[in-house]
Amino acid sequence: MFLSRSVSSARRLVVASTAMKPPLNGVSEVVSSTRNGRSFASSGMIRKAPLTTPLAAPNNHRPSPKSTLMPEEDTDRCEDPFHSRTASSSVGRTRWLISEASLSNDDRSRVVLLVLNADDEALTRRYEFPAIWLRDNCQCEACFHAGSVSRVLNWEQFDVERVHVAAVQPVDGGHSLEVLWEGAENGAVVHRSVYNVEWLLERSFRQEDSEAYLEEWYRPAPELWGAARFHEVIQEFSYADVLHEDEALRQWIEALIRYGVVMIKNAPLTEHECRRLANRVGFIRKTHYGEEFIVKAKEGTSNVAYLSTPLQMHTDLPYYEYKPGCNLLHCLVQSKDAGGGGANLIADGFYVAERVRREHPDQFRLLSETLVNWTDIGEDEGGKFHSIYRAPVICIGRDGQRLERINHSVPQRGSHFCVPIEQVDRWYRAMHRFVRILHEEAVQFRTAPGDILTFSNIRAIHGRTGYRDTVQNTRHLVGAYLDWDEIYSKLRVLKTAANKGPKEMESVGG
Length: 510
Ligand code: OGA
Ligand code: ZN
Ligand code: ZN
Hints:
Layout lengths: L7 H4 L43 E2 L18 H5 L1 H7 L8 E8 L6 E8 L2 E11 H6 L7 E2 L4 E2 L12 E8 L4 E7 L6 E8 H6 L4 H12 L11 H4 L2 E3 H6 L1 H14 L1 E5 L7 H9 L10 E5 L7 H4 L3 E4 L11 E8 L10 E5 H11 L1 H9 L2 E9 L2 E9 L2 E3 L6 E4 L17 H17 L2 E3 L6 E5 L3 E5 L11 E7 L1 H25 L2
Parallel strand pairs: 10-11
Antiparallel strand pairs: 1-20, 2-3, 3-4, 5-6, 7-8, 8-9, 11-21, 12-23, 13-22, 14-21, 14-23, 15-20, 15-22, 16-17, 18-19
The site of one zinc ion has 6 residues, from strand 9.
């Protein structure tokens, strides 16, 4: 059920008091813009309308010399990054045939394939596949259930010490590999597996192929941006296109993954559009504030002044271990505050973290190793809650390098700080550094009614300037969250569907 009451008072327990200097030192005035609104997709599905509210670049950076929001040279990349990238992967659209299959000389633990390009036989490649992996991934009906794309091999009886290849050979004119498996006792063949060559090459163990697969099908790498580049990276999509055209939906998701922030324009002015957008991808991520929430100053309550005060830059809900991945903020009514109040602030938290890593490595280490207690205590439609999650401000992945998640929220950083006392001062200095750089890299703009600002809640850091809320001058946003699991999943579904078209047409055309 959609609740029209404001829940935002509970969502942010503390905001900067007016006596405090709002942390916008590095964020500039709105600059005038001469951006052209131009169509950039050859399909004609996506239109780049000019932003109705000018975007601001910070005053310590000159605005990008490009006057368009989307530089022309980006056009190709946006149109179909999938096809251009697959062409360079090991499989691509080339037809490969197995010319030789053998076992590794040493311990016969690997199957070695020589494959050649069907269109240019001089072009050959050597691939190795571990025998144990091949056995585990047999595609026969007893081992693999095609309908559910799932392994059904009985692992309770699978003895990894007794997997032995009896023989390997190319079959089906080199289109497939046959592997015969020995039984444990007398060496008799007990199982036969056949693998399609394309299926094998798509699962190549070569490092560059694994990397290409991960980039293409797991998670494309983000492209980080500082304030000076914001105008180059911010893309706009029409709400109707995203809702009705798969190509537009795919491009929006790809931009969200790449840049962490994307604008959607011209959504109807109802309170249900975030839900419709979320349903187009997957489903809303519910939190203890419910599914959709209203960001609005509540008239006649003690919260009015409180809710229109500046909202310091933050990530939402850092006290969740499984923090909502992506924010949808739909502007229904924007403040008409002459001073530009009610504007959005946003920065690429990954870019900020990389600057800290490069310029102040010791402080980066402190911010990425010190566990902070993020908390939220209160009551909302789902009842009382008392959330605590401990995590650093900068979370890095298991490889010790890759940025995984940024947590930053002054209101939601708990007062319990369970670290050795001698670390405290150093951590505060590092945090001060982080916030200074954050504000240097923040941009400011004001969304207009119909805009849905979409951004990664694990990467982007956002906030809002204060505004004067009166009966004649109100502000009304609706927000909701989406999880990255659903977003990535939808992207793969869309890519698979888009790839079927050209492939089928190719085979029809010979
Ligand atoms: C929030 C928030 C932004 C805004 O409610 O968490 O970031 O523009 N709001 O009011
Ligand atoms: Zn099998
Ligand atoms: Zn927020």
